[in-house]
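Figure 2 data, in text form.
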Amino acid sequence: MERDRSGLHRWLMRATAALCALSGAGLLAALALADRPRLSALVGCGVVFLSALVVFVVRPFGREPRHYWVCSAAVSAFCLAGLVGTWHLVHEDDHHVVIGAEVTSAEMVETYLAQELPRGSAPWRVPTGVYLESIQFANSNEVKVSGYVWQRYSDDIPASVSRGVVLPEADDSYPAKQAYRHREPGAEVIGWYFKTSFVQKFDYTRYPLDRQDVWIRMWHPDLDRRVVLTPDFGAYPRPWQASAMHGLDPQFVTARWQPQSTLFSYSRHDYTTNFGQGRYADRPPFPELYFNLLVSRQFHGPLFETLVPTGFIAVLVFAALFVTTRGDELRRTFVGFTSFGVISFAVSMVLVVAVRQNAIREATAAPGIVYLEYYSFVLYLVVLLSAINALLVTARNPTLVVRWRDNLLPRIAYWPVLFGFSLAATLYTLG
């Protein structure tokens, strides 16, 4: 038996050394990537490398329980550091995705329209601007927006062309409240005030570290006219800077969201109808104008209100592992350890975790799995493993894992498994 354990020890040392070398090579490869190294490769390889290095260095010094606990604490600390570091990197990342193609100057608009407008078409261009005062997320897919939208009609546009703008995705698509109207040399400027709700599809996969694009989609009311809306860049400071948040009230009001940038974009849609305007083949698909407001969630509240009860449950499950023992009959009698008691405790913990997960589902109403739910899955895993461990401890012929140092292995592996799976889920979802 002692020879088998010695052979197992040597095998583990070789495997640890190989893992250390492979993860170190992976870390160097991730750092050597030219443009932007993948977050998952960088953080994952770094954590595995440091963890394997600690195990490789500490393990040969002895086989006392304290050496195993040192390795367990080091691996857990590295995983936790990787977890917090990933949160910080994702939150500080300025990467954003908007609908269609971004345009930040009149030159970019002309270049885009030259490529996208049908050949031979000579549409009238109507400069259009947007100014937002507030947004409010009514639910997971509905946002209430208030602000102003204006248009500049040059004198060469016939009076037969309607004056107005359509917000096709709003409850009130036609802003009825005209705020102002005046003439300037060579053009007429008309502004409307709107306060309406938009139903939009948001991606909550990264909740609560998610970022959303609240967009204002605009049409001209004359669908049969050859009119294309263009951003009124002359009404904003130049040059356009997305981070300067032009078109946004300095006292912008929103709850739990932080504005990041604003910009215009174009998107082309091929509709399967002509809206009753002549023949379908005669209606060219003009690009549609969008005004985008990118916001990031203030994640501290949702994150910690989930992690605090999650951490409390994890500590309780870990404490329950010290109740499961074989060698100390007096302690077993004193604490009242039974397989049924441990299983009952596991069931109660699962119910608490399920309630927390259901609250997350109600907050997002996402069709898929969101990031915070993975912490519930990790707790399901450790609760299940602790229940299985309790059954193995009371088995008539327990396995070597349970007999070794009176069930020490599940205890020292608990936090590395918990934080390791949490880090893996984080890198999979956010990396």
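Caption note: Strands lie at 101-103, 124-139, 142-154, 177-184, 187-199, 211-218, 227-231, 248-253, 257-267, 288-297.
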